[in-house]
Amino acid sequence: MDLEQARFNMIEQQIRPWDVADAAVLHLLAVVRREDFVPLAHKALAFVDMEIPLGHGQCMLAPRVEARMLQDAAVQKHEKVLEIGTGSGFMTALLAHRAQRVLSLELVPELAHIARTNLQKAGIHNAEVREANGAKGAPADGPFDVIMLNGSVAEVPSALLAQLRIGGRLVAIVGEEPVMRATLVTRTGEADYLTRQPWDTVAPRLLKFPEPSHFHF
């Protein structure tokens, strides 16, 4: 398998046509080795347009979804990022290349261990992986310039929005199948938030986030 050709095809055939035009994001996807963050059993699928199982009911999002979320987050070099759902650490690595510091929360201890190992091998030193329930965030470490949720939620908890700095952005996939929307929330004031939902997709649930009741009286 020609890895560089496969990487090039992923960027040109999956990611760029999906309205990812940010040159910095495309460059990052060309240099951060996605195959090093994929479980050995699925290495051949590293550049395929699909979710890749990580075990424990978790998965890596499809490359085009990761790229579009990264573009929406528009992380700057001076910014502090909170990531929820570390998985194998690939998005953590992408964020770390763009941010000053990344704190990543992972509920599954085995995945947290794998992500730490992957990040260390990739030479990433400005990201910390912590075993924690991401639904609560990390209030003691906030406020954050960017909060990234690597999976879908029924709704964004207000506890997370409260951990955004004014001017900060939260990127998540919100809703229920079959309709979920990429959601970009910008904190514009102490109690003011601007929400945009620029594109649709479907993604697996993040663990431990509240689900709305479906009982109607």
Strand order of the largest sheet: 5-4-3-6-7-8-9
**Total domain units:** 1
The assembly state of the depicted protein chains is: single chain
Whole-number radius of gyration? 16 Å
Counting DSSP H or I runs of 4 or more residues, the number of helices is 6
- Tell me the CATH architecture: 3-Layer(aba) Sandwich
Low-confidence stretches: none
The level 1 CATH classification is Alpha Beta
Helical/strand content category: alpha/beta
Mean pLDDT: 95
Which bin fits the share of residues in helices?
25-40%
Note the beta-strand portion.
25-35%
Tag the structure with descriptive keywords.
217 residues; 7-stranded mixed beta sheet; 6 helices; two-stranded antiparallel ribbon; 9 strands; Rossmann fold
Describe the structure.
The structure is a single chain. The protein is an alpha/beta fold. The chain has a single domain, classed as Rossmann fold (3-Layer(aba) Sandwich), CATH 3.40.50. Helices cover 27% and strands 29% of the residues. It is built from six helices and nine strands, in the order ααββαβαβαββαβββ. It has helices at residues 3-15, 23-31, 63-73, 90-98, 109-121, 158-161, and strands at residues 52-55, 58-60, 80-84, 101-106, 127-131, 144-153, 164-176, 179-187, 193-201. A seven-stranded mixed β-sheet has the order 5-4-3-6-7-8-9, covered by helices on one side. The chain has a two-stranded antiparallel sheet with strand order 1-2. Strand 1 (52-55) and strand 2 form a beta hairpin. The protein starts with a helix and ends in a 16-residue tail after the last strand. The model has no long low-confidence stretch (mean pLDDT 95).
